[in-house]
Protein: Ubiquitin carboxyl-terminal hydrolase 39
Amino acid sequence: MLANDRKLIAVMVSLKREREAEVDDDDSEDGVTAKIGRGRVVEDRRSRHCPYLDTINRSVLDFDFEKLCSISLSHINVYACLICGKYFQGRGLKSHAYTHSVQFTHHVFLNLHTLKFYCLPDNYEIIDSSLEDITYVLKPTFTKQHIAGLDKQGKLYRAYDGTTYLPGIVGLNNIKANDYANVVLQAFSNVPPLRNYFLEEENYRGIRRPPGDIMFLLVQRFGELMRKLWNPRNFKAHVSPHEMLQAVVLCSKKNFQITKQGDAVDFMTWFLNALHGALGGTKKKPSIITKAFQGSMRIFSKKLPHPDLPPEEKEALLVTEEYQEQMSESTFLFLTLDLPTAPLYKDEKEQLIIPQVPLFNILGKFNGSTEKEYKTYKENFLKRFQLTKLPPYLIFCIKRFTKNNFFVEKNPTIVNFPITNVDLREYLTEEAQATEKSTTYDLVANVVHDGKPTEGAYRIHVLHHGTGKWYEMQDLQVTDILPQMITLSEAYIQIWKRQETDDDTNNHTGV
Structure:
């Protein structure tokens, strides 16, 4: 009982402190306005004539990190000091922000939740249109007209720090070892229907989730990251995905971390499915994820007798119903392409030769006739695949890594692929060939893995739709790149856009 009492007391104390912090923020006492008779409100005359606006230092302002008080670590009633950039809780007489303003004579603060500006210790609201650029950086907003024009122009914008940048082609900070996640986030931010959906918060604000469901945090954080990446009025030409990645760590139960290198395909698989579920999507109910990426295929599967059985037993089993070919229909969000086995032994001359394979060779897996053996713990199956529906955006995952109990092995084979006009009609069933209008795709994103399997690095090539130019991004580094250089890399994840999908995908702003 004593332990329970202590817990109860601790909870009550915590709640009391939170209430006090909220009371500290009450405007009615000594803040912005004064109420005079019959509910009339009079504005503080100092609100529009604050003498401290020229002390604001925009170069230190960074709203990409978690909104926590730097002293109490509380996320309730947090204010940013616009002179030093630090975060503090409350603004009442005993609050951390108040104390900071007195100690360091820093007077201008921004409430990170209400987006209101205050002068401390005098505690009045500041109303001045010159501060709008700060609130826009904290919370960028996009109109339908702005979103519709994103892919029609390639105007360079100048950040507050003087660097020029293209919205969307913006570096992501590598906090420690999160480049595997950065490249996936960059790839998705350059898929127009997905980007457009998340740029407009109205699209998903009304989605109802069960109480205690933390997965919707992923949706909110991804939307915030999209708006920061495409913000034409940034203070700096890069973004830190800190809050987005914290949501990833929390929602994946630490399967994906900031401090430990992960696999980009594993992360992408989890992220797509997690977003689909958090947006209320199910197997039958679509979401923006399935609208953009989901295709379907037929799988023909045939069980194989155990290889150690005598030949006559094998023949007897092959005529039974259990060993006949079965057909099933399945949806997919991406297609896995298998590389041919790399040579095991190389002499001195061959050491310099990196094996190469055309993209169409490894796409042969889906032509309906190529068979491949799949082994499970107990049974072996022979499978072949054929596509029945192509999505507006098609993701390829090139299987470079083979994992076993002892080590991870990487296949360095280079895949030769054209950047545009990849026609997939021959991989569709006859019925699908008759109904699919366009089966030709152009590359829009190419994720590359360099180096050793467990300690390599990731980079990404993306097409900027407005300029038609290709860019390479590796964490904070952004450089333009010639299209012919892209095909020389060890491609790992690719996103292809169907050529005639503009009409289909631009209206994917609602689920």
Q: What stands out?
A: The longest strand covers residues 440-450. The longest helix spans residues 2-24.
